Amino acid sequence: MAKTYPNAVKRHLSDYMGLTFEEMCKEYLLYYIDPLPIELNQISRWSRTDHQTKKQVQIDIVGMPTDGYEYIICSCKYRNEKIRLDELVTLVTLENMY
Fold first, then answer.
1. DSSP string over 4-73
2. Domain ranges of the chain
């Protein structure tokens, strides 16, 4: 029994919790929607293929505005580590595209 948790649960916990944590982040955003600097029309997930790198790009949460071109872009990761540089570059690149 002592080996069950580290081998069967702990090793796969972040995979299991990833989508759950993403939903928690969306709920958190909705809970604090009033003080946000923009009025949101929709909150969803965004993905597409980057034509330059040929890689799939995914943003966990995109808050789309009622009007204008200011978006809320969030990366939600359930893990105990700092954001990787490639994730930060993706967020900054998307910010500059719109």
1. HIIIIIGGGHHHHHHHHHHHHHHHHHHHT-TTSSS-EEEEEEEEEEETTTTEEEEEEEEEEESSSS--EE
2. 4-97
